[in-house]
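Re: export button greyed out
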Amino acid sequence: MNGTLATRLSRLAQYGLLGALFVFLATPMLVIVVFSFDANRFPTIPWGGFSLEWHRAILADPMIRDAFLNSVLVGLGTAALATALGFAAAYLDFRHRFRFKLPFILLVAVPPAVPATILGMAMLAFLSRIGLFGRLETVMACHVAIATSFAMAIIRLRLNDLSRDLEPAAWNLGASPLSALLHVVIPFCRPALIASFFLSAAVSFDEFLIAWFVGGVHETLPVRILNLLQGQVNPKINAIGTVVLVISVALVLLAQRFTGVRAGRRPKPRSGE
Amino acid sequence: MPTPFIALDKLDKRYSDHHAVKSIDLDIEAGEFIAIMGPSGCGKSTTLRLIAGLDAPTGGDIRIGGDSMRGVPAFQRNTPMVWQSLALFPFLSVVENVAFPLRMQKVGAARRRARALEWLDRLGLAGMAERNIAQLSGGQRQRVAIARALVTEPSVLLLDEPLSALDAHLRVRMQTELSRLHRELGITFVYVTHAQSEAFALADRIVIMSEGRIQQVGRPQDVYRAPANAFVAEFMGMNNLVRGEVRGGSGGLLEIGSALGTFQVPAETPLPAGARGDFVIAADRITLARGADGPGISGTVLGLEFVGSTQTVFIETEGGAEFRVQKQQHEIEALDLVPGRRVTLSWDPRHAWLLPQAA
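Workaround output, generated via the alternate export path:
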């Protein structure tokens, strides 16, 4: 059977390629995780035995603890603000017609497309001029600018599925515009709001360049990692890397869980009014 | 005369790209079942949205129970509507959907649940209370939408093509249901539809709209038998329109000349010779005879179409006009009507209806 053999080989090749790709992507991360539990001071083969020494060491390091706390604060703040602003922008786009709507949406959407170096430098220049340089809130504000774009994208996708009649139906049944927003639009968007919360948190938690530019003495975890790296090769880095990896992956998985993008469902075409 | 329950007073709605409702006047009595009909784009749905306050009029006023609705937002009108799309809240259960208007009125949780359950029971949905909307059939969703609109016990119910998404069998059942509810509740129903059968089956009065204007208001049989103008006559379907000119007349009968010949048409007021004399003759009032040499208009059968127990016969006259004639099955058989057969059409002059002159 010629065909079967060819099909099998082709399938084998496809799986092989896919496997190789995953190995290529995952190996560096895996190496970090493995060596974070290595008793050796330097990540070398052979493996020096299982140890929690480096994980304990990062817990004991006050600078790392501070950086971690900063990252959590900035991440949570960014998540809450970006979700709120992203919802506001998406809702504005959904409910109202106004001049300059397209430029407005582009303005919200564009920050992630700008190279982070340029964004970071621009923000540094701007913020130091208005005297807001070097505060934790500043880092948060910059992260919000980036994450809002993702939040709006996710929430807009969800609002696209909201029947145009649903909100007017709520008004018709006695809901004031505010009640309709609280009781109809927000419950409808809940999965998207949760998803954008976790995704915004992940964006903020991973972001290095801007935090490094504008944070001043307030280090977030990625900034602390770089500063450690500049000093010497420190085995604590592997341990921090493992923690960051676990948190980031968890946040993204949580976000995925709530985006609710189901296969085979097309968004309804917008009905003309 | 008592003040009407809902009064539209020179109501006007202009959008940037078209004039949807052109200064219409309409009085709706309390407890009336009124149907607004017309082809799509005639302004019937816009009129309903204006009554509900979902759109703001660009002219005129709406009074409900004597009070002007100018500046009253939709959520303070208590004019619940059953939407064509149903607009049920997908993230709420059946009972939560029905209780929604009560929740907006700050009715306590236990009480609103009890009342919602009562309405579900009334619409034959007992036992469905905790289901998701997605688990219901089309007919059940329809009932949920109606229960949700009625739960606050409003004095008016607006319905925007509520049955158009249902299949024919369910549609008839829901018509019966709506009729029963209207009788039991005694409130005003304003029903927008493009389906003549629904309007005729349900409404006390029907309003025919076209291009943003009201063409005629009246009881269904009156609108059917005595259309106000050619548009209504054609919209009602089973009418044959003959365009002609008044030649003279006496004793309540006008003599009208047309391309098809001269006809006698009753008229309440005499018209001068030369005036327009368009008239209609209903499809079920025409007598058919075999052969082309009797008195009347001769023509050729083009084809036949089943409409329930009757058939519609399409006939082309010598003058090239097309007539529709409605006949029982046995009459068709007796006359052996097949396409190509020559026939003669005639009718009792008393059944012709002269279209009132357009103002």
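Residues 2-36 of chain A form the longest helix (35 residues). The button fix ships in the next patch.
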